[in-house]
Specification:
This protein has about 200 residues and is an all-alpha fold. Helices cover about 55% and strands about 0% of the residues.
């Protein structure tokens, strides 16, 4: 099926879709980025209800299986490759061959950070936000990594006894001031390891 060029348009901070990615698109009627955003939003909302209705411990959540299950739940009605690791190079993210190793190391690091407790000197918010940032940098999946990492961070902070993050109080898919602040905070953490703006934004 030939899809609209609009689906291949590049959006700041988003992983561009390729024609190969679009082969996995399940709803055949989707022809625009707006339509794609709508069907993805519906699927993500269902996944959020499912995820927040479960009791997650840190040990249950911090596994590669849980990370893949979460992505699959978020996009299973939209993409045939939901829950599958990325197989191509992207402008952000580790090499595809390194995804399983890098993700495993991240999840093990989080478990160690939680176990260290007060000796580490990080709040539960900071543990979850640092996890979010590294998960975005790893970029395990072909698309939906930001949404996946935000939901995973929400589940982690709740598992640690906190409240889910608010992420600016708006949908961050569309262009706008909140999305710009979020991307700026991520990029600041990339360059300087200053997590203050990202922590502040997550609670705004």
């Amino acid at each position: 099926m030939i899809h609209s060029e609009d689906l291949l348009a590049v959006t700041d901070g988003a992983t561009p879709l390729t024609p190969d990615d679009l082969v996995g698109l399940i709803p055949t009627y989707v022809q625009s980025r707006e339509e794609l955003n709508d069907v993805e939003r519906d699927n993500v909302m269902e996944a959020m209800i499912w995820a927040h209705g479960r009791h997650w411990t840190v040990d249950l959540l911090m596994t590669s299986g849980a990370m893949r299950q979460l992505h699959r739940r978020m996009f299973k009605d939209v993409w045939k490759w939901a829950g599958a690791y990325r197989l191509r190079e992207t402008t952000i993210g580790v090499a595809p061959s390194q995804i399983p190793v890098q993700l495993r190391d991240l999840l093990e690091d989080v478990r160690a950070q939680v176990e260290a407790g007060e000796a580490l000197g990080w709040s539960r918010d900071e543990i979850a936000i640092r996890f979010h940032h590294r998960l975005v940098l790893t970029h395990p999946f072909p698309n939906g990594n930001g949404r996946h990492a935000r939901l995973a961070a929400d589940l982690l902070v709740v598992a640690l006894g906190g409240k889910r993050f608010t992420w600016g109080g708006v949908d961050l898919i569309g262009e706008g001031e909140a999305r710009s602040r979020y991307l700026d905070a991520l990029r600041r953490a990339d360059k300087t390891f200053d997590y203050g703006p990202l922590l502040e934004f997550a609670r705004s």
